[in-house]
Each structure stands twice: as structure tokens, then as C-alpha cells.
């Protein structure tokens, strides 16, 4: 298997296939857990791709599901082996949102609503450093340096010459006006947003204050979509101590509709650029 196998996506695909086999057998996760003398939560984590899975786990589950085709068993065991490889982000140690990075690395498109700050993929180095240090005052300088490096490394998905990530961002006006780092840092950051928004695969809209209450009032979220039809879309909601991943079609559809409302309420692309440029000039005074 190629060295660029994404372990996060492999785990997710394998988990989906194991769930399919369980449902074909007509068994609940609780029944499977009882047969294998493990917790129900372990079966759930294996199926949703949030936990690494061993070849032995696959073998045992295939036994419970009475999978007779050895080619299927061997294919699933190979997927389990591939899923235990490490992505580039593992070289940086314990990254709190490593599952998300794995999904973002393999996504075809990403839609983001950001109410407070400029979203990570659009951040300059100085802005990223100020955000990370301000948001993690208890972390060591070394830890924060590592987080900044990871954030900037992620941006290769939108700067790639071939097959870049299709990015659509809705920024609340508050993210333009919150002074992060310094006025100079903000001016350079907003100029960077304007430059990136000229790229054909990057769309930036601004949700102005005058809109008032809106469909994204409850906070930040992202919607990831994948080229492979086998990979369902994911809604990602970042938390302080844990993150939330929603994959059920009903949940994804609800957030998708919310995002369409946000896009409709936001300034159009040209109006958004004009507002970003105007605020950037205010920081230059």
C-alpha cells in the first residue's frame, strides 16, 4: 500500500464496512460486544473510526458475523493494517484534533462558518501564533510552537498546485474587527485573506453585524465532503476538551441547510472583499 495512505480515512472506511456487516447479520452493537466480551463503547468506536483497529479485532468480528469469503476477510485485515500507519501530523506528537486533520487532509471540499476568528487555513503565521498563544496560556512555548507549525502545514491543502481543497468560508464581521496580535498583524492578515480569496477554489463571504440573529448563532462548525462516494460527509464542531463529529445524513443535512442560510444572509463575494479591504485600511491608520 502506498505510503500516503490516510490512516484516519482508512479507519473510517473500515468502520463503515464493519457496521454494514453487523447490520446484515441483524445484530446490535451490544450483542456483538457480549459475544466478544468487550464493552459496547469499543464496538461503537471501532465502527465510527475514532479508535485504531487491529487485525485481530477484524478477524474476531468477521468470525462473529460469519463472513465466509476469505477474500473479504483479508481485504478488511489489510485495511486494518493500513489504518495503523501514521499520518504526517503524528510526527508532532499529541495533537488534540488529529482526527479532524486526517479528515481535512483527504477531503475534497470544506465549508466553514467562523464567528470569532479568521479560520485556520487562511491564517498568517503571525496571526496563528497570536491566536494559539492567546487561546492556550497554560501551554509551554514548545507546545504552542508545535501547534503553529501544524496549523501552517495544514494550509498545503489549499496551496497545492494540483487538486487543492475546495474551500468556502463564511466569516462573521467580528473576526475582522477582533484585534489579534496587533493592528499590523490584523492588517497583514486581512490582506492575506483578500489575496487568497482571489483563488478560484477559495470563496470567502462575510456575515455583517447588521444581519442580527442568524442560523449560525450557536457557533463555529465545518462540513467536510469527500470525493469517494463511500465516504459520507462529516460535520465537525470543535470543543474545548473534546470534539464532535456528526455523520448521520439527517444531521449533515440540517447543518448543510443552515450553511445555505448563512451564505444567503452574508455579503456576496465582491461586497465581502470590499469590507475586508476597508477594515484592513482602518488598521493601517
Ordered list of secondary-structure elements with their pairings:
Blueprint: H1 7-25, H2 29-36, H3 40-47, H4 55-64, H5 70-83, H6 98-106, E1 109-114, H7 125-135, H8 141-154, H9 156-159, E2 166-172, H10 173-177, H11 183-196, E3 202-207, E4 221-225, E5 234-237, E6 244-246, H12 249-265, H13 269-284
Parallel strand pairs: 1-2, 2-3
Antiparallel strand pairs: 1-4, 4-5, 5-6
Helix pairs in contact: 1-5, 2-3, 4-5, 7-8, 11-13
Helix content: 40-55%
- The geometry reads as elongated
Low-confidence stretches: none
User: H/E series, N to C?
Assistant: HHHHHHEHHHEHHEEEEHH
Query: Average pLDDT value?
Result: 88
Residue share in β-strands = 5-15%
Structural class: alpha/beta
Ends apart, CA distance between termini: 55 Å
**DSSP helical segment count:** 13
Number of strands: 6
Please state the CA-atom Rg, rounded to the nearest Å: 21 Å
Cross-sheet strand order for the largest sheet = 3-2-1-4-5-6
Largest sheet: 6 strands, mixed
Organism: Streptomyces pratens
Domain HTH cro/C1-type: 18-72
InterPro entries: Cro/C1-type_HTH, DUF5753, Lambda_DNA-bd_dom_sf
Pfam family, one: HTH_31
Description:
By secondary structure, the protein is an alpha/beta fold. The chain is 52% helix and 11% strand. It has a 6-stranded mixed sheet, with helices on both faces. Strand 5 (234-237) and strand 6 form a beta hairpin. Helix 1 (7-25) runs antiparallel to helix 5 (70-83) and helix 2 (29-36) packs across helix 3. The radius of gyration is 21 Å and the shape is elongated. The N and C termini lie far apart (55 Å). This is Helix-turn-helix domain-containing protein.
Amino acid at each position: 500500500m502506498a505510503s500516503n495512505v490516510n490512516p484516519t480515512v482508512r479507519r473510517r472506511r473500515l468502520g463503515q464496512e464493519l457496521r454494514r456487516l453487523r447490520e446484515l447479520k441483524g445484530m446490535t452493537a451490544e450483542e456483538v460486544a457480549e459475544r466478544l466480551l468487550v464493552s459496547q463503547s469499543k464496538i461503537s468506536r471501532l465502527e465510527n473510526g475514532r479508535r485504531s483497529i487491529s487485525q485481530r479485532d477484524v478477524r474476531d468480528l468477521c468470525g462473529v458475523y460469519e463472513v465466509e469469503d476469505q477474500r473479504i476477510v483479508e481485504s478488511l485485515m489489510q485495511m486494518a493494517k493500513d489504518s495503523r500507519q501514521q499520518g504526517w501530523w503524528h510526527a508532532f506528537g499529541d495533537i488534540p484534533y488529529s482526527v479532524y486533520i486526517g479528515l481535512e487532509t483527504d477531503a475534497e471540499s470544506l465549508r466553514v462558518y467562523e464567528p470569532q476568528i479568521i479560520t485556520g487555513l487562511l491564517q498568517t503565521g503571525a496571526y496563528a501564533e497570536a491566536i494559539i498563544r492567546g487561546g492556550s496560556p497554560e501551554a509551554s512555548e514548545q507546545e504552542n510552537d508545535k501547534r503553529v507549525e501544524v496549523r501552517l502545514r495544514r494550509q498545503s491543502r489549499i496551496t497545492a498546485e494540483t487538486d487543492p481543497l475546495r474551500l468556502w468560508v463564511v466569516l462573521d464581521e467580528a473576526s475582522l474587527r477582533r484585534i489579534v496580535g496587533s493592528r499590523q498583524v490584523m492588517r497583514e492578515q486581512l490582506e492575506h485573506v483578500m489575496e487568497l480569496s482571489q483563488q478560484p477554489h477559495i470563496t470567502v463571504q462575510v456575515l455583517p453585524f447588521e444581519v442580527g440573529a442568524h442560523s449560525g448563532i450557536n457557533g463555529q462548525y465545518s462540513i467536510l465532503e469527500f470525493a469517494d462516494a463511500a465516504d459520507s460527509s462529516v460535520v465537525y464542531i470543535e470543543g474545548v476538551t473534546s470534539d464532535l463529529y456528526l455523520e448521520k445524513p439527517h444531521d449533515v443535512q440540517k447543518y448543510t441547510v443552515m450553511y445555505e442560510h448563512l451564505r444567503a444572509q452574508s455579503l456576496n463575494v465582491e461586497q465581502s472583499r470590499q469590507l475586508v479591504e476597508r477594515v484592513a485600511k482602518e488598521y493601517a491608520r
